[in-house]
Amino acid sequence: MRTVIYWETSLRFVRCARRFTHHIARFTLQFLWPTFSLGIISLAIFGTVSCAVEKPTPIVSTAEGPARITSSIAPEPTTAPSPTRQPPTAEPASDNSPSVPAVMTTPDYGMQVFLFWQEEVADRDLELVKEAGFRWVKQEFAWREIEGAGPGVFDWSNTDRVMDQIDAYGLNVIARVGVQPEWAGGAYPRVGPPDDYQAFVDFLDALATRYQGRIDAYQIWNEPNLAREWGDRPPNPVEYTELLKVAYQAIKAVDPDAYVISAGLAPTTRWDQVAMPDTVFIQGMYDAGAGPYFDLLGAHGAGYKAPPETDPELVADDPALNNGDPSPRELRRIYCFRHVEDLRAVMVANGDVDKRVVLLEFGWTTDHRRKSPYYWHAVSDQEQAEYLVRAYRYAKENWQPWIAVMSLIYMPDSQWGIDDEQTYWSVIYPGYPDLRMRPAYMELREMPKD
């Protein structure tokens, strides 16, 4: 306990010092540097001083890693369709973009974060991610929060600040895009695809232009195999493939080095108007011609009650591990971390061997509330910590070379409380300014990372 308290106190001291330095630098750049620069320019104009100001060379990491793996399938030309609306040009937010594409090791280490609303919380959480030795964050860039006021009317205030903070910590980012604004239709306020896909194309064009070379990867939508994420309409892999296609073309036309990741899909045994099994949905995507329009396959890999090494065959036959689900046996394989291997099998069956998988969400919950739907598969705090570490170890030993980033859930939203189910998946307790660690974070921080 003394070690944890000492570490947290030290972290607060370091954070305060870093924040003080950050504000001094910001003041210097905003107020002193413009005046100094103006003086130099004036002197040069009037011939008083003759000098040349050299543009600083961007600092590029020299850490070596494996070469980027891309699909062996040649995509169609990446020129986006001619827009029916002309949004304002989104100028790049800064000129300090990385000069090389981000590298995903196998596996690589990521966390889902919530950086959008409070700068000081975002700063703390990014520092925790960095201190843990993780290299990637996944952050939602909700369309309705950026272009909610109307077509072509963008609010970049939060996204500029978020991207500056991510860059300051030297982290890579997966931007989850979706969640349409009211003016785009799509059964708003429910989440659903826009009435006109061109509206999404225009948004992505503006987003990718503004953060060209800075957003490393884009996740296109989330869990479209659920009706609640598809405008309360039956899941439709053909419709999603069309959305994925135009999104891929829009992003690649602006930033060809950015990764495009297909949506993470919800593990489910339902196959009706409400939901579709993820393996069935992915096969439907391939049948609809999705292959050339994503660089990496997105996946979700909740562990449920089973340890990460558990064979899906055993899970399918054990009512204690599948909650007595009466669904067909082949569908009951979803109730474990290694169900990701079933998604990989669909890729291989469709000849997509050279592509890799990004695990966009995975984890174990400690939600022991009696009325919670997650109660049946809740694990202890210590089991959660051990299972997360063992999941990375299992992937390293068994899923190379096809596994890429594994983004766990969550570095929590500081506003969550005990009534929010997401709290119990998280690796620290929600809250600010108090910092309360959980065993999961402490174990992950000590975990070796290559």
Topology:
Blueprint: H1 2-45, E1 108-112, H2 119-131, E2 136-142, H3 143-146, H4 157-168, E3 172-178, H5 197-210, E4 217-220, H6 237-254, E5 259-261, H7 278-287, E6 296-302, H8 312-317, H9 319-322, H10 340-349, E7 356-363, H11 381-398, E8 403-408, H12 439-446
Parallel strand pairs: 1-2, 1-8, 2-3, 3-4, 4-5, 6-7, 7-8
Throw out a few tags for this protein:
450 residues; alpha/beta; TIM Barrel; 12 helices; 8 strands; disordered N terminus
Short description:
The protein has 450 residues and is an alpha/beta fold. The protein has 12 helices and 8 strands.
How would you describe this protein?
The chain has helices at residues 2-45, 119-131, 143-146, 157-168, 197-210, 237-254, 278-287, 312-317, 319-322, 340-349, 381-398, 439-446; strands at 108-112, 136-142, 172-178, 217-220, 259-261, 296-302, 356-363, 403-408. The protein has an 8-stranded parallel β-sheet with strand order 5-4-3-2-1-8-7-6. 42% of the residues are buried. The radius of gyration is 23 Å and the shape is globular. Helix 2 links the parallel strand 1 and strand 2. The model is unreliable at 1-11, 20-89 and 95-99 (pLDDT under 50). It folds into 2 domains: 1-55, no CATH class; 98-446, TIM Barrel, CATH 3.20.20.80. The protein has 450 residues and is α/β, with parallel strands linked by helices. The two termini are 29 Å apart. Helix 5 (197-210) runs parallel beside helix 6 (237-254) and helix 11 runs parallel beside helix 12 (439-446).
